[in-house]
Amino acid sequence: MANSKRVLFQKRRLRVRNKLRKVNAGRMRLSVHRSNKNISVQLIDDVKGVTLASASSMEKDLGLVGKNTVETAQKLGSTIAERAKKAGVEEAYFDRGGFLYHGRIKALADAAREGGLKL
């Protein structure tokens, strides 16, 4: 049976997440989801099972609705870094899910690092 794109994506997502859980116990997780139209990011405490901060390109106050570009990802990265600082988090690990680390995903991570979040 040939592996479909979805199956390969799920394998990558599980491989990344399991590796991060083993290595970075106790740290918050910065999880990213990218669709064709939008991108969203959450800061998650896996021990308590709660989301501490989040940002999305669908938020009207950010003025990014309907735009899914590298510039949008950079804006979201700096926004999540600000919100993480307000929540008292300075260090997290980057969970890219099954997405490849380039383009919008990389731009978001770099902007979060520039915003003061240690990934």
UniProtKB/TrEMBL annotation:
GO terms for molecular function: 5S rRNA binding; structural constituent of ribosome. One of its GO terms (biological process) is translation. It holds the Pfam family Ribosomal_L18p. It comes from Salipiger mucosus DSM 16094. Coiled coil: none annotated. Keywords: Ribonucleoprotein, Ribosomal protein, RNA-binding, rRNA-binding. InterPro entries: Ribosomal_L18, Ribosomal_uL18_bac-type, Ribosomal_uL18_bac/plant/anim. This is one of the proteins that bind and probably mediate the attachment of the 5S RNA into the large ribosomal subunit, where it forms part of the central protuberance. Part of the 50S ribosomal subunit; part of the 5S rRNA/L5/L18/L25 subcomplex. Contacts the 5S and 23S rRNAs. It comes from the Bacteria. The keyword Ribonucleoprotein applies. One of its GO terms (cellular component) is cytosolic large ribosomal subunit. The keyword ATP-binding does not apply. This is Large ribosomal subunit protein uL18. Belongs to the universal ribosomal protein uL18 family.
